[in-house]
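My main concern about presentation is that the manuscript never shows what a single data entry looks like. Each protein is reduced to its one-letter sequence and a matching series of backbone shape codes. For the editor and my fellow referees, an illustration may be useful. For illustration, here is how one protein appears when written out as sequence plus structure tokens:
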Amino acid sequence: MTPSDWAAAVEFGRKLFAGPCDFVAAVPTIDRLPPITLTEVAFAGRSNVGKSSLVNALTGRSTLARTSNTPGRTQQLNFFSLGEKLLLVDMPGYGYAEVPKAEAARWAEVIDLYLRGRASLRRVCLLVDARHGVKKNDLDSMDWLDQRAVPYQIVLTKADKLKQKDREDLLAATAKTISRRPAAHPDIIVTSAETGEGIPALRAVLGLFAAA
């Protein structure tokens, strides 16, 4: 993409995410998925990685997606319509041990069925907490997505908590981790919901999937 094309994508993304964003559905079971009408992008990651905070930052709203300091708060697939051009899907987090096993198993089944069976899903933003880097359950998620050819892109969250040297090391390590993964997009987006870092870039990338 040329610099002028990228500038146009950033501006389109800004306008898209500044427009209306409406709650569509909270889906606890796969049979209650909304009908396919638009392209979808989903946000996945470990519990408390900042998925809901990132969705709020992208849309410029403070309460669109429910946030909490309590891991495991998001317990269903939450769908939001972005100007009737793109659906954003906030997914339950994984790896939170204190969730009852039966509940965790139910979440896992819903997520599994959604990710491998949703024809309108174009990309998964796989969020990784920059303070901790890629963990085993992140690698497990990458393995699952690779095996099922579900395209995903790493988005580092909470980058404002890192020093510059730590950030450089993290980017190098993360790039090495995904270098041979067939379903991983090679570009890593570094973000902070607190400072707004990386938000314009992520808006631009996701805007490429929006309906014309």
In short: The radius of gyration is 16 Å. Residues 133 and 170 are 7 Å apart (CA to CA). The beta strands are 21-27, 40-45, 77-82, 86-90, 121-129, 152-157, 189-190. The longest helix spans residues 101-117.
